[in-house]
C-alpha cells in the first residue's frame, strides 16, 4: 500500500489551502476474533443465535436491552492495553455503545498522534488521500463501524468493511475483473456533517456520527453481551489508516490483535461472525487475528494500566461513561407506539423525551411540485415496505431463513424526511444510509440536479459535464430519467461496466489510477470541505464545528437536499405521481438486492393500495439508457431483485413486469 509515516498536517485539497492539523491526539489499534483455542486467554461460552419469535401481533422480535457499565468499559480498555504492551505497540483505544456514544478514549504513553491515509496509486492525491488524521478519530471510527455494521444476526468487523468497499469483490490480485464490493461507498456514511446523526452536545442520544465515516482499516470489532451487540472497540497503534487489498494472505495486524484482546469476554457469537456469512458466493473475513495468539489479558486492571483517558472534541469530554441500552428511550431508537406506526415490531428515532424525531408526515414541497406526498400516502409507502421486509429472507443474517432487518427512509423532493421506520434489530448503519439512498434517488431524478451541482464548490460542478459527455446526452440530470441508486452507482464505479479491466471509469468516479476508498469521486468531493472543517474542530484548531447538513450545494428552505451526503450502492427508488417526481424511498441493512426489492415492491404495493402514487414510469427509468463502450453497448440497471426472496412464498422474479 502507499503510505508510511507522514508529517502531521493537511495538504492543499483540490487547490484549496486548509489549516495545518498540528495538535496532539493519541492513536489506537485494532482487533479481530475467532474461536478460542490453545494458549492465550480463554473466551467464555458465547451464546449461539436461535430463531426469535415475534410477540403476537408483531412482525419482529426486539432484542434484549443490554449495555456496557463503566467497569466493563474499563475492563475492555485494560485488556486491549495489556495486549498492546505485550507487543510493544502503544495504542489509542476507543469504546462506543451500539448507537455510537463514545464511552471512553484511552491513550497509552507513546501512542502516536496521527495516522496516515494512503495516497492515490498514481501519486496525484485528491480529497483526503495521502493525509494524516487524528488517531483518536480513527479509533472512534473503527469502534463505531464494528458496532454499526453488527446486530443479533450478524457480527461484522472493519476487516469485513474493507472487503465490501473496494473496486473488486473479494479484493485480491486474482479477482481482478469481478464487480465492486456490495457496499461500495458505505464508508462515506455516518458523516460528521450529517443532519441525521446526533452530536455529543445533543446528550446521550443516538445514533451518533463518526469523525471519519465508516472505517475499512482492520482493528475494529463489535462487542456483545449475552448474544446482544452492545457496542464496538477500535484501536489505532500502527502508523497507517488504510484497508486490506488482498484477502488471500493472513495479516499480522497489530491493531487487530489489540482490539481482539479487548473483546475477550465480549466476543461475538461464533455462528453469526462474518466468516459464516457470504455474499455472491464468497464468505467474508471476520479477522486475521486469533484468540490463541493473544497474550494473557484476562484479569488486566484498568487502575494499573499506564496511560490516560483523553478528551476528543465533539465526542467525549475525557471520561469513562456507561453505555445506553439499544431500544431504550435514552438510546434514541425505541419501539414505535401504535399511534406512530400501526405495524408491530417497528422502531423509530426518538429525542430522549419520548418524541419521534421523524414522524410520518406530508411533503413540504407543495410550492415546488404542486401535489406533494400526503401523510396517508407516506404512511402507505412505509407500511407496505415494512410488510415486504417481514416476508423477506435475509442475506446477511444467521440463522438461515431469518427475516431481513432494515431501515426505511422516505423523503420529499427537498430532501426533507417524511418518516423513518426500522425493523427491531436492523444494523444501525442502515439508518443513515437509507436516508442517503432516498435523497440520492430523488436528487438525481430531479429537474434541479444539474443546476444545483453546477452551483457546488471546488470540482463538484465538473461532474455534470462528465455525465453528459459519458452518456452523450446534454439534457441528463434535468429530470428526463429516473435514477435508482443502482443506476447512479453504475456511473460511480472506477470501471464501467463495473469491475471490467481496461474500461473507462464511470463519470461520477475517479479513474482507477487515482481511486481508492478514500476518494470515490463525486461522493467524496461533495463532503470534502465538511470533513476538513470537522477535523480541524476535533484537533482544537477551530472553535467552530462543520455545519449540521452536508455539502456546499444550494439550500432549499434553509436546508440542503443532500443533508447527509449521497450513497452509491443499491437500495432506493424515486417516488412518482404519474410522471411527476415527488420524493424517494431508501432501504438499507441487508443484502443490496433485498434493499432494492423492498424499496421497489413497497412503493409498488403502496401504489396499488392508494391508486395515486407509483414507481417511475418504465419509459423514463435509467435502464433505458444505453452507453457505448468501445464496440459494444451497455445498459444501465435500475433495480435487481433476489431469487426466491420470500419466507412465505416460493415465487421467483417478483419484480418482473412491474
Automatic annotation (TrEMBL):
Biased composition (Gly residues): 31-42
Pfam families, per database record: HbpS-like
Region (Disordered): 31-57
Gene3D superfamilies: Haem-degrading domain
Signal sequence interval, chain numbering: 1-27
Keywords: Signal
Biased composition regions of type Pro residues, renumbered to the chain: 44-54
Top-level division of the source organism's lineage: Bacteria
Parts of the chain that traverse the membrane: none
Name under which the protein is recorded: Heme-binding protein
Protein's organism: Erythrobacter longus
